[in-house]
Amino acid sequence: GAVVSQHPSRVICKSGTSVKIECRSLDFQATTMFWYRQFPKQSLMLMATSNEGSKATYEQGVEKDKFLINHASLTLSTLTVTSAHPEDSSFYICSAIDRGQGEQYFGPGTRLTVT
Amino acid sequence: DAKTTQPPSMDCAEGRAANLPCNHSTISGNEYVYWYRQIHSQGPQYIIHGLKNNETNEMASLIITEDRKSSTLILPHATLRDTAVYYCIVRVSGSARQLTFGSGTQLTVLP
After folding, report:
1. Which of A2, A10, A24, B10 could, after both became Cys, cross-link A111 (CB 3.0–4.6 A)?
2. Tens-of-pLDDT digits for all 115 residues of chain A?
3. How many angstroms separate the CA atoms of A74 and A15, rounded?
């Protein structure tokens, strides 16, 4: 089946620093990728939609200047959390739509802890 | 996408069948029923999907009622590793739109 990877799987950073999370589709091309955030005991909440070669579309309440998304190729999207604060600590999950099949696959998630 | 309703939690004995219900009474004719699960601290995993016929794969079976207003995911022989949150999602197959996750059902498989 289609595989989506995320790197890193876990990251701890200090408040005020920036962290980049990578999402890659390993065996398919993805024109659209999504970034979700999940707080403990809650469901996944969509943060933004990332389309290859164009600007990301952010959900209401998500700061585009804080969560920078770049989708420079058909297999890679990155999420950069800028000036991280402890309240940004969360589980970040990406998903990608297989351009050929149209189905959506999820990465394993990245656990971000801001101290 | 149509809204779905699932019980918040269920228990199942190891080795027995787990039957997870989902109501989707506002489903449209071109919308499929998808099931994903999320094991703790992992990304969601695709399980199965169907339109109106019952479906079976190596992981599970999906039973959709004739009026398509509800469905049941069946794990025929639940194991401890099946403990997870199970999400029932209704969407158009191949849609470029995001998946919208509800609260899901926390299935706990008991030894």
Report:
1. A10
2. 689 999 999 999 999 999 999 999 999 998 899 999 999 989 999 999 998 888 899 999 999 999 999 988 899 999 999 999 999 999 999 999 888 777 889 999 999 999 9
3. 32
